[in-house]
Request: fold
Amino acid sequence: MTLDLGRLSAAIRAMGEHLAAQQAAYEQRVALARALLRTVEPAALVAAVEAGHATALPLEPPAARYPPPAPPTDYQVLATDGSQIEPDRHGPALWYLLNIGWAVIQYGATPWAELASTPQLYYRPEDLYVRDGARQAPIQGSRLDARRSVAELERLAALAARPAPVPRVALSDGFLLLWAYWEGPEGFVRDHFVEQFQQALCRLQQLAVPVAGYISRPRGADIVMLLRQAPPHRRACGRCRGTEPEAPCALDGLVDRLLFDDLAPGERSALFESRTLARYYPPELLPRFFYLNVGREVARVELPAWAAAQPDLVARVHAVVVDQCRRGQGYPVVLARAHEQAVVGGADRQRVEELIRQTLVVHGLPDRPSAKQASKLVRAV
Amino acid sequence: MAERTEDVAPAERVGEIIEATSHAFVAQSVRLHQAPPFGSLVRVPVADTDLYAVVAETRTASLEASGRPIARGYADIVDAAIYRENPDLEHVLRTEFRALLVGFRAGSTVFQHLPALPPPLHYSVYTCRPSEVVAFTARLDYLRTLLAGPAALADELVAASTRLAAAARGHEQGEAFLLQVGRALALLLRDDYDRLTAILRRLRPEEPWR
Reply:
């Protein structure tokens, strides 16, 4: 049966009313949070992070804002993005595909660009499972996302290894950590991917190419969590103080980007360091981030600590991201190009599946899907 | 006018075929915005024959079907400067041209009728050297093929291809060729005097119209 839209419409109407009612409350909360950010004593926030109550360590006055520096007249920007065909355990054979797309664009006196992609098919046991002694975990879902993130960053490091005559910035789509995988329970799988990811981050550091993770419409609430630890708020909020677990909190439901909605176009927020995964990453690779008004939205930009510690590199990344968003109508053009290269459409997917089926037939191997999949392909009534 | 001095230049690979039917093909231009001229003769070598076609339409658009170009100029960044400012554009736009098949050459014989099969996809399209243009246009049966398209475009196409074929012959023989085409058109369009004069006027655009 198809989706019963008639039954859904009442719920959709209720949702609209709910969101409209929330809007006014949010505006008050945002005003409160901004006032806290301006007035809070930074030392109190640093102490809260060091005590493990919050994760975003302020590295500049928390309410500071910085206008965009002029971008270098000549610069090169690199980006990668990936897409995948998930392994299908109901399919005739177990395999998956990663397609890594990349874009290199140089601006200035010698403008040029390179847009390309490279597909990789994985089907050997060592590709299909992460192993640790007798334990093994199939690569699929969030584990495949992690493998893709590693492949994207490795490709970025390989592009950065080419010599370039002009200043460079490498952009990656999303966080500079393997967030996608973080909830995974298997420590050995996480360690497997984190080690590879760190190696690629280290190569970029050795090459002195600042790599920035670009997050469009970020949902992070690191700064909001930090403000919950601000003494004036804790005095007023029983929940954040820990004495009244059920009490309403005036910062509920906020995300960081709403706090920074008042940045002027091109302005960035202060730098913060994310300590969430400090156990797993060496200090020089820990992500530092700022929020940035790119014109159409407030985005989050993450840099590894080694790059964020150099003001000229922060200025370069800030200026280049703003320039890229100006050229890309609100989103970095180099990331958009890398994405276009990476994308695997439904028709491509079907062709790959068909080619694999053909090769199975050629080798006299069974080419049938599982009974469950077969029943979906031919609906008997 | 120079007498066929370009003849020493090698034919240039200008496109790759991405669509083909019995009577026409579409090719993607090797370089953005550099399709062969409207009305020019192009050649597609297939095994030991050469297929000939006349370029009838050129278009430039996004490489991706869903992509839509947007205006990018601002301040003094206009025209060519837009491409210098956005070096990625050359990689996401493509120029295509459509060419009408008008005949083929097998061995040393030129046939001015449609080949048995259209060219395969992804085969290369070359410009024709002046000597090839002269050899192919020694007969004028292909004019009927060109005239068969939508009238307004077909008139322009016949005129453009004739002007180019005349230029390939150099000044004196070019004049004779124009007369020869004029006579052939007078026969083909004997029932349509208006159309005939419209084309004839386009054959000698530099001459004041009487």
About this structure: The mean pLDDT of chain A is 91.
